[in-house]
Amino acid sequence: MKKKFKEFYNPNFKELWNNCTFVFDTSVLLNLYRMNDESKDAFLEVMDKIKDRLWIPYQVGYEYHKHRIEVINEVKNKAEKLKDDVNKDIRSLKDKLNELFKQTKNSKHDKEKTTNILDAAEKVINESINNACKKANEKTSKLINNDEIQEKLNKLFESRVGNKFDDNKLNELYKVAEERYKNKIPPGYKDNDKTGNLKYSDYVIWSEIINFAKANNVCIIFVTADEKKDWWQIYNGKKTCLPALKKEFYDCVDKEFHMYTPEQFLEKAKEHFGFKYSEDVIDEIKAVRRQDIGLPRREIMKTKQLNHFYPKTNEYKQTVQLINLLLSSSNSLAEFNNKIVKVFKLEDTALLRRFVAILQKEYVFGRATNVAVNNLANYIIETQQLINDNQLKIVDIYNMNNDFDPFEEDDDYNPFDD
């Protein structure tokens, strides 16, 4: 039965990776400009490893060159927008807290303490974002005048780009695509609301891939950041290649066709070739893909879901909101840890870094984070109280917290080790 319905089964991945041609979509090439340097270099390293089996359709190359400057400028604009958004969030938080204090008796001390912490947080965040904006401007200028990413891609795809279809062939493809879209035959029909022939770009890319595979008798792995359901079968948040696409490829080429998102591709490359990339690299590539298609990172948790964990509700809410602000403006575990230390006037301890690590990890993957947030918030509040009362040093806080130890099975864990 498997032979009759091959499109519903996964291929032999080892054999596929050893023999296939890797084809990249426009979104993947452009996302290299949105990644941080570590993630970008890791992705390019994998592409270099398979450089003898790379290929892109002409349509992908054209779209990359058409939108390259636009995406480079987007990096600069994104940093400026982040600065505006964070400052807006801080102002909103201050306004809400002022309203809260107006309704609370004997809140003068709490108000002064909270205002001081918020002012410190605002200063740290603005310093960080101003630095990010400066770096973004420098990066933008450098890329426009001397684009190292483009130079690398030019070397990787030298003589590995498809030929342009002539106008007669394109018009023929557009007519075929129009009929396919009416019947919701993938790929591309989800772009039917776009204007002109632009709506047919995905089908042109698909036609180029099939023609190339047929001419060269090769199986294909297609890497794309596109998330539309005319490419993917999505079940419980997990994406696999649409069986309809695999069947059409089998029928036309009699070879395997498989697809990956950029982070899936890097994870598989890490497994297949033995690369040693940190989870931060894969998380960053996933975050870039989600932001590119307009999916914001999830908030850690709504404060109302955490109220029951801590009796000092107002103080707890303030701490959780600050944690959210600091986390959303941080680009790494180390940066987030440093902000926590500076804003809350703590000492940097191994225990604090462990709390930071588990919080950041769960935040990125969108898991339930109430335990992690709760314990970090409690740790901060209790530690600040100890500092104020001069009862214990921060390093002794762990000895007072015997009721809960989320790391008891991993005592040697260091979140900053590769």
Tell me about this structure.
- 30% of the residues are buried.
- The model is unreliable at 293-313, 364-369 and 389-418 (pLDDT under 50).
- It contains 16 helices and six strands.
- It is mainly alpha-helical and 418 residues long.
- Helix content is 61%, strand content 5%.
- Strand 4 and strand 5 (238-241) form a beta hairpin.
- It is elongated and about 75 Å long.
- Helix 5 (108-145) packs parallel to helix 12 (313-328).
- It has helices at residues 13-19, 26-31, 37-49, 58-102, 108-145, 148-156, 167-182, 201-216, 243-253, 262-273, 279-292, 313-328, 333-343, 350-365, 370-389, 397-400; strands at residues 21-24, 54-55, 220-223, 232-235, 238-241, 257-260.
- It has a four-stranded parallel β-sheet with strand order 2-1-3-6. A two-stranded antiparallel ribbon has the order 4-5.
